[in-house]
Q: What sequence folds into this?
């Protein structure tokens, strides 16, 4: 049965064409669907009811169409949802983290969508719920909790929420003795704040009308937020900004960065009225991060050509670059990802040969040791710490077959204590699955890592369907971690694979550099090479591969659909950044100026314009026989605006050949992250997986019998 025959014969929405022209660098483009961009998009993010009725009607028609085409999968979606829900411990709880007289953690109650935050006495005891997300979310179609931070004296809780999906967070302060929020609220923030040392006020980032974090304020408790003191204002719209604090409550860090340049400003947490001082002024291409170290700062930087980063120290009294001293030198191919310091130890997370590792350094002797692991491919994470003067650090471990494990590690004795193993209530036997790491030769001879998992009963003769996931932007590496959701596909004979393409840092910083700006085509060609390799190794066949990616990974989906539509049997593009050129030409959008170092500035540069125009998915839709395509979006998404996938789907329908359908599912109550509740999100994943099963002819395939 061909893919188009798997769908009912329902006419898709016909999108009205209202062409508008734009001329840049002597090139004129016409956009027949530009009207889908709401002129009042800023207001819509705050109040979706203000959306133009004509646009709303069109989006509703798209939802009606995808529901009609997917109607025969409703029961399958319910089954998938129940399977995925059954793998979640409904009353799960984190392992509390100690801080002074208390230990803080989070949990879910059975059936609950939102987390609850609690604390116990330091060495254990009854849980005291200090914030109940389910109670706060009651009656709201969308609700997401942002940062949650207790004050240094443990008397108050600073917390944030977003109830539109637009990522304009409101900050509130809770009195932990009385269990009520203070009257004061601070709207339009970036989602978190940091207390001053006295705990009588906090620093936060305020978003402007265009959703940019342009100002840092200090709010004194008991005052009106309109009177908050402006600490720093960033005049360059091309830079992101954030504020954080040190665990010893010594410092407030104001971080200013784009995708290739960093600047930090410091002020004492004990003097919120002080003017912040610059650590090292921004210099294009210079990146550095600060980590506290008592009378020194540890500095992770790429200075002096250290492409994969090195570690420096600097005196707290004068941490300018002139005073930086090398501690851990640059080693090409060993990418240092992050640092976590303690009174006597320094811990670093790094990646070498495509795999992560944790290295512990004794600050006094300089002796280092690495924590070892046995599996072929795995994921590691540093879990942070509230305390500085301790010998214990916490880390997480998982692989594609091994559920997540949380360890406390004594850096002095090197003793590893397992605190928790992720429970899979419905049962999980790692021996039922096989995980592999392959290397796919790309167009230029580079080897692209592929992490994959499949059921041990799946035949590897080219007949298995495959879901191939990719991202490949911003230097983000996709970990080979445990994913309970993908087991629903593996149990039905799918190979679930991740292509670690260029544009991420999976093989070091150079892997990132080789997948951005003028070299962006490498990202797409790597993904196509991964698909070809899986076919050559007889894991699957081209017409049985469903490609999936979200956000910038959705752009990857759009690009490979144009470049090699015959290589895929289906494509799932979530919150897809597919109208790259138009967005990078619109400097009023929230992320456009800070994104120019990643993609190029087509406003100023004709070369950047041509580079982006050559791959931008919307601009390269052609008369191809595309596979079935599913696009998913959220109305209030400030990162990838809803009109990008809406326009892309409309143009695909207008220009493509063949009868394969293209579907657009838009959540009218959410933004970039999709549905806010943990179970609501599973419903969206179940929909996507039902599409993958449908287009590969596996919608009615029963799962393999579960072994004991």
A:
């Amino acid at each position: 049965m061909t893919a188009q025959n798997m769908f009912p014969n329902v006419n898709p929405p016909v999108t009205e064409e209202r062409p508008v022209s734009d001329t840049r660098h002597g090139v004129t483009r016409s956009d027949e669907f530009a009207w889908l961009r709401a002129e009042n998009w800023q207001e819509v993010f705050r109040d979706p009811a203000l959306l133009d009725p004509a646009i709303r009607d069109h989006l509703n028609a798209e939802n009606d169409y995808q529901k009609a085409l997917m109607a025969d999968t409703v029961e399958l979606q319910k089954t998938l949802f129940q399977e995925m829900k059954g793998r979640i411990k409904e009353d799960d709880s984190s392992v509390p983290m100690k801080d002074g007289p208390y230990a803080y953690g989070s949990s879910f109650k059975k059936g609950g969508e939102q987390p609850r935050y609690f604390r116990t006495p330091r060495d254990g005891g009854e849980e005291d719920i200090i914030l109940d997300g389910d109670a706060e979310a009651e009656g709201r179609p969308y609700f997401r909790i942002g940062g949650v931070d207790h004050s240094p004296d443990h008397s108050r809780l600073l917390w944030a929420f977003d109830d539109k999906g637009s990522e304009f967070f409101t900050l509130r302060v809770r009195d932990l003795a009385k269990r009520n929020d203070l009257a004061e609220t601070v709207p339009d923030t970036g989602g978190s704040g940091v207390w001053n040392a006295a705990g009588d006020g906090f620093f936060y980032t305020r978003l402007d009308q265009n959703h940019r974090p342009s100002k840092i304020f200090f709010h004194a408790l008991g005052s009106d937020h309109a009177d908050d003191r402006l600490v720093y204002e960033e005049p360059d719209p091309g830079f992101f900004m954030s504020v954080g604090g040190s665990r010893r409550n010594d410092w407030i860090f104001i971080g200013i960065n784009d995708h290739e340049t960093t600047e930090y400003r410091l002020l004492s947490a004990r003097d919120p009225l002080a003017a912040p001082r610059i650590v090292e002024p921004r210099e294009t291409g210079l990146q550095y991060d600060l980590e506290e170290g008592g009378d020194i700062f540890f500095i992770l930087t790429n200075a002096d050509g250290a492409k994969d980063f090195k570690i420096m120290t600097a005196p707290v009294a004068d941490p300018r670059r002139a005073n930086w001293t090398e501690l851990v030198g640059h080693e090409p191919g060993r990418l240092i990802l992050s640092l976590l310091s303690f009174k006597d130890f320094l811990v670093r997370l790094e990646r070498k040969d495509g795999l992560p590792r944790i290295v512990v350094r004794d600050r006094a002797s300089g002796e280092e040791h690495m924590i070892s692991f046995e599996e072929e491919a795995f994921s590691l994470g540093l879990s942070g710490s509230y305390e500085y003067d301790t010998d214990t650090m916490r880390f997480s471990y998982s692989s594609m077959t091994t559920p997540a494990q949380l360890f406390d590690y004594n850096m002095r004795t090197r003793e590893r204590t397992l605190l928790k193993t992720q429970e899979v209530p419905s049962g999980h036997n790692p021996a039922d699955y096989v995980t592999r790491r392959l290397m796919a030769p790309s167009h230029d001879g580079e080897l692209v890592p592929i992490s994959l998992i499949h059921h041990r009963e799946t035949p590897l003769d080219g007949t298995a369907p495959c879901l191939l996931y990719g991202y490949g932007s911003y230097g983000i590496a996709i970990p080979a971690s445990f994913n309970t959701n993908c087991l629903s596909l593996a149990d039905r004979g799918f190979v679930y694979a991740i292509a670690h393409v260029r544009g991420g840092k999976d093989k070091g910083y150079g892997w990132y550099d080789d997948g951005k700006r003028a070299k962006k085509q490498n990202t797409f060609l790597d993904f196509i090479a991964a698909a070809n390799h899986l076919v050559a190794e007889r894991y699957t066949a081209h017409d049985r591969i469903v490609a999936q990616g979200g956000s910038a990974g959705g752009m990857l989906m759009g690009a490979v659909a144009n470049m090699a539509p015959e290589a895929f049997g289906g494509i799932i593009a979530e919150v897809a950044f597919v109208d790259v050129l138009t967005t990078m030409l619109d400097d009023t959008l929230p992320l456009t100026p800070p994104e120019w170092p990643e993609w190029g500035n087509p406003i100023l540069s004709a070369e950047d314009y041509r580079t982006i125009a050559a791959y931008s998915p919307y601009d390269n839709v052609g008369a191809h026989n595309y596979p079935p395509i599913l696009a998913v979006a959220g109305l209030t998404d400030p990162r990838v605006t809803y009109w990008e996938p809406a326009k892309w789907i409309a143009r695909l329908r207008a220009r493509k050949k063949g009868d394969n359908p293209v579907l657009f599912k838009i959540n009218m109550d959410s933004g970039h992250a999709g549905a806010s509740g943990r179970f609501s999100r599973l419903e969206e994943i179940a929909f996507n997986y039902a599409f993958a099963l449908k287009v590969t002819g596996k919608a009615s395939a029963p799962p393999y019998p579960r072994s004991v």
Observations:
- The two ends are 36 Å apart (CA to CA).
- The chain has a mean pLDDT of 94.
